[in-house]
Structures are given as C-alpha cells and as structure tokens.
Amino acid sequence: MSVDATELHAGPHDDEPHEGGLNNRLNWLRAGVLGANDGIVSTAGIVMGVAGATTDRGSILIAGVAGLTAGALSMGAGEYVSVSTQRDSELALLDKERRELVEEPQDELEELAGIYVGKGLSEDLALQVAEQLTAHDALAAHAEAELGIDPDDITSPWNAAFASTLAFTLGALLPLLTISLVVADARVWVTVVAVTLALALTGWASAAFGYGASRPAVVRNVVGGLFAMGVTYGIGSVLGTHIG
C-alpha cells in the first residue's frame, strides 16, 4: 500500500491521542483495579469462612470489618513501598544520565545514534536525529531511548497507594454489606452472585486497561474468586462444627 507523502502531517492519530502523564494514570488505574479485585476476593473469603462457621450476623460483620481495615492498610502500604522503590530507581538512573550528558556528551550522542541505527535508521540519519533531539531536550531524549523513562512522568507512590487503598475498601464493602444485610437463609448465595458479578467486572476492566482479551481475564478472575470462597466456606463449616 503506497502513501502519498504530500498528504502526511506530523501529529498523533485522531483516535489515539498521546497525552502527557500516561504512565502515572496507568499506574493508579492498575493499582485501583487490582486493589478492588483483592478487596472483593479477600473480604468475601473472610466473611464466607465465618458464615460457614456461624450464622451470627455480628460475628460475620466484625470479621469482615477487621479484614477490610487490615487489607486496605496493607494494600496501601504495599503499593507505596513498591512504587517508591521503582521511583527511587528511576530518579537514580536519571541522575546518572544527567552526569553522563555533562561529562561525556560526545559518547552519549554516539550512544543515542547507535540506538536509532539499531532500530533501522541509517547512520547519517541516526546522527542527525540524535543531534536534533539532544539539542531540543537532551535528558528526555536519552532517558526515553536508553532507559524507557519519561522524566516528566515519574511514577507517584502516593497516587498508587491512595488508589489501591480506596479501591480495596470499595471492593471489600460489596461482600461485607451483602452478607451482613441479606437474611440468613439467602446470604451465602446472594453474596456468591454479587461477588461473581463484581469479579467479572474487575476482570474485564483489567483486560481493558492492559489491552488484553477480556474473556480469559474474566474467567480467571471469577474462577479464582469462587475457589477462594468455596475453600474458606468449607474450612469455616468444618471448624464451626468441631470447635463450636
């Protein structure tokens, strides 16, 4: 298929805009989806396990609230530590690149040109591209090509921690409120249905954000959640029978 060069215009595709801050947005979206999914599964497992051992609404509610609180704090702290480590590494690499650009500008220029040669450009064109990009923003050009880092879009641990904590809490509230508010005779099955639908939604969302196939993601999510609830309910039933 031939393309008329006179009709070409530099710029993003109309249906695929390229906006700044994409890394941070994807980071907190990922943390949010995973947090909601963990909140649903872990809290559903806890309340189902207790429901297997007792029909007392108060005991189920206390266990669920305790699991929600501990899980939300754990998720937030875990995301903060993980993303902080990633951020520290990115900042350290950027500092190293700044020093090299000051101390070894010629070597850095040749290195950048070599990267573009490896991507298919001729050596002369690669040198021209490297020189122009370096003149425009040396750090950004080298960081993106060599490190895959955007200096203006460093990951934020606070965004990830907040998104994860909030999402876990919202996800955990679904099984907690469902099993607490529904009458004893129907609470288990109503909770299973509610959790299944919620896991299908988070599975679809995780696939959508990652541009993956939605069906396998939904199936994995739902099957994993049902397995967790089934195991904990069974354990709760056995322990409730023998200990109670």
From TrEMBL:
- Main location group: membrane
Report keywords, A-Z: Membrane, Transmembrane, Transmembrane helix
What molecular function does GO assign, one term? manganese ion transmembrane transporter activity
Q: Does the keyword Transmembrane apply?
A: yes
Q: Does the keyword Transmembrane helix apply?
A: yes
Region spans: Disordered:
1-21
Location in or out of the cell? Endomembrane system
Identify the GO cellular component terms for this protein.
endomembrane system
* Matching InterPro entries: Ccc1_fam
Which GO biological process entries does UniProt record here?
intracellular manganese ion homeostasis
Regions that span the bilayer: 160-182, 188-211, 223-243
State the annotated membrane topology for this chain.
Multi-pass membrane protein
Q: What is this protein called?
A: Unannotated protein
According to its UniProt entry, this protein's organism is freshwater metagenome
